[in-house]
Amino acid sequence: MSLTDTFVRFAKASKPSGDKHYDGGGLYIHVKPQGKYWRLDYRYLNKRKTMALGTYPEVALAKARKRRDDARVLLADGIDPAEARREEREAKLIAASHTFESVALKWLAMQAKMRSASTQDKVMAWLQHDVFPHIGKRPISAIKPRDVLAVAQKVEAREAYDSAHRIKQMCGQIFRYAVALDLVQRDVTADLRGALAVIPRSHHAALTEPKDVAALMRAIHGYEGYPVAKAALKLAPLLFVRPGELRAAEWAEIDLDGAEWRIPAVRMKMHVEHVVPLARQAVAILRKLYPVTGDGRYVFPSLRTPRECMSENTVNAALRGLGYSKEEMTGHGFRAMARTMLDEVLGERVDLIEHQLAHAVKDPNGRAYNRTKHLPARREMMQRWADYLDRLRDGHDLH
Question: Are 381 and 189 in contact (CB under 8 A)?
């Protein structure tokens, strides 16, 4: 006679060893003084075996019957259900131990022999800042396409479109590495084709690949034109201010000893005074220029008259003289170059970059940050940027 829910609920042990009450198909409940235990008796390879199916009431009668039926399906296929369950449990333990982060770090270590240290650092920064906080602790076998998409879309939301695409590609490489290790069946990022926004073309032409910027910095370093234009061209990538702000710079605004340039609000697009920390390289260029133009108002005076600043076309003309067309690089493009590479290559904080670009940056309450917000951190960022450009010019960090 089959068991009922009522019987199982009220059944009590009549002796210390307990009582067995059968339901059919080898399923029974062993009622002991300390609890009620579901068991399944079966034969496999002519041997009698018993398999635990859980305890009551955590496993109700209907669920115990379902587990019995599943086990008998396996037996019909010549599979020992107890062994199958053990293998399943081990597979889950293995999956839990192979998190996305652990697999990614193994993949990164494997890549170290084939990539430069700077590229490794850039990839690690992406992983630590954008990926691990969201999916790093999850078993890689449990991650779905939508999980990777959510990570990339968070990067998209800050308008770092190229980084979003690169992060998706990086995750794809990690998944393919996991496939080779037999940890996952496939690269789930293959399902994300077309899911991210197309990388927008910058309105102002700019170089953003390290090898291209390295060539540009060498060309600028070797420029032998008018000294004022030469100084402006060298400062443009270091300061990445708007071209109009650069050409109209006044000596009275610059504190060489304090390594700082304060552009008055009247000359700023946002009508707020802007502080530009000067890296050592920028200070050196300005000190060399001071004996040439320091007795006048403008840092970069016009060639025609010192009472006016240099022409808006001066930096662009110098770039054309170096062989760069307007479709390749512009004076305004130094801002896009810095914005992209500080974020995507050096992994600098986006809010610091936006502050330095004199973009509107809001605090968590929607208020505009003070112009001196994070100034010490911005000073350090500007020095790292200048040092990085020097390394590119010298042929390092090209990947």
Answer: no
Positions of E strands within 18-165: 19-24, 27-32, 35-44, 47-56
Q: How far apart are CA 240 and CA 368, in angstroms?
A: 22
* Sign, CA torsion 58/60/63/69: positive
Is the previous residue joined to 57 through a cis bond, with omega within 30 degrees of 0?
yes
Task: Residue count of the chain, please give it.
Answer: 399
pLDDT digits (tens, 9 = 90+) for 187-197: 999 999 888 87
CATH number for position 167: 1.10.150.130
Instruction: Judge if 157 and 185 occupy the same domain.
Output: yes
Q: Are residues 278 and 375 in the same domain?
A: yes
Exposure string over 210-240, b if 16+ CB within 10 A, otherwise e: bebbbbbbebbeeeeeeebbbbbbbbbbbbb
Burial class of residue 119, CB neighbours in 10 A (0-12, 13-18, 19+)? middle
Structural domain contains residue 198: no
CA distance 206 to 334: 7
pLDDT digits (tens, 9 = 90+) for 227-285: 999 999 999 999 999 988 999 999 999 999 999 999 988 888 777 889 999 999 999 99
What are the residues facing 301 on neighbouring strands? Answer: 309
- Check if the beta carbon of residue 151 is closer than 8 Å to that of residue 171: yes
- DSSP string across 127-186: IIIIIIIIIITSBGGG--HHHHHHHHHHHHHTT-HHHHHHHHHHHHHHHHHHHHTTS-SS
Q: Which two tokens stand for residue 95?
A: 């999956």
Residue 104: count of CB within 10 angstroms of its CB: 25
Active centre residues (catalytic) = 242, 269, 332, 335, 359, 369
pLDDT higher at 198 or 200:
198
144 and 69 together in one domain: no
Structural domains of the chain, count: 3
Q: How many CA atoms lie within 13 A of 339 on its CB side?
A: 21
The pLDDT score that the predictor gives to residue 364 is 46
**Which one of 79, 95, 111 terminates a domain?**
95
Range of the domain at 135: 100-192
**69 and 137 share one domain:** no
